[in-house]
């Protein structure tokens, strides 16, 4: 049977095949009787700082690759949706979610190593970090990338970079409003906490 992308034949052929695939089967790790932890149990090695090590660089690379994989699989899933291959889309999104969780795991380690790109803190600090990245993209990255694209006569890419620059500007405005709102909530929470401590203090004095 000849199958063509987007054809009804492909859709009919895919239904039973994709229904037999479980999304979990793509994200569940393979079991192993021997683990690396078993080999190192006898060695009580002192933990060393992560920053500056080869492992640190490996984690950065792994994070970048998984972040790209997450977007790639979601993009492919959307393509499958367009072709009517809903089960294929479901499986691809399952793998995308798995890649996302793995990227988050890498981020936790990178956070310990003070990785600038992924360091996580309180929400107000995280928003400030996002603002800084969006500002850098708006002021430096996208203008440079657009200029290079135009110089290489890739006007469609140049236009795309300019569009993304405008998106970064809009993101900056949104993040600034969010930052103001979050700071106001923090301020209100601190004031309520101070009032609560004051009331408890007066109650204790009365006793």
- What is the rounded distance between the termini? 88 Å
> What is the β-strand count?
0
CATH structural fold name of the largest domain: Ferritin
SSE-based structural type: mainly alpha
Which term fits the overall shape? extended
> Could you state the oligomeric state of the chains shown?
single chain
CATH class of the largest domain: Mainly Alpha
Major sheet summary line: none
Helicity, as a percent range: over 70%
Could you state the order of secondary-structure elements as H and E? HHHHHHH
SS summary, helix count: 7
Just name the CATH architecture of the largest domain. Up-down Bundle
**Uncertain stretches:** 1-18, 20-34
Note the beta-strand portion: under 5%
Rg, nearest Å: 25 Å
Overview of the molecule:
- GO terms for molecular function: metal ion binding; oxidoreductase activity.
- The structure is a single chain.
- The chain has helices at residues 8-19, 24-27, 36-40, 54-82, 86-112, 123-151, 155-206.
- The chain is mostly helical.
- It has 2 domains: 54-118, Up-down Bundle (Ferritin); 123-206, Ferritin, core subunit, four-helix bundle (Ferritin, Up-down Bundle), CATH 1.20.1260.10.
């Amino acid at each position: 049977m000849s199958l063509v992308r987007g054809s009804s034949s492909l859709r009919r052929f895919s239904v039973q095949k994709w229904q037999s695939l479980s999304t979990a089967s793509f994200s569940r790790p393979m079991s192993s009787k021997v683990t690396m932890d078993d080999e190192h149990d006898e060695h009580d090695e002192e933990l060393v700082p992560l920053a500056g090590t080869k492992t640190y660089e490996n984690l950065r690379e792994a994070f970048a690759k998984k972040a790209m994989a997450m977007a790639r699989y979601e993009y492919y899933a959307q393509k499958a949706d367009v072709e009517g291959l809903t089960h294929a889309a479901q499986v691809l999104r399952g793998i995308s979610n798995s890649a996302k969780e793995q990227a988050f795991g890498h981020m936790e380690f990178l956070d310990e190593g003070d990785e600038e790109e992924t360091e996580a803190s309180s929400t107000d600090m995280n928003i400030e970090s996002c603002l800084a990245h969006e500002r850098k993209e708006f002021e430096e990255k996208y203008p440079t990338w657009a200029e290079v694209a135009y110089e290489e006569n890739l006007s469609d890419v140049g236009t795309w970079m300019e569009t993304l620059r405008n998106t970064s500007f809009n993101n900056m405005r949104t993040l600034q409003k969010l930052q103001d709102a979050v700071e106001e909530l923090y301020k209100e929470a601190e004031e309520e906490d101070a009032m609560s401590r004051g009331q408890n203090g007066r109650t204790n004095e009365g006793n």
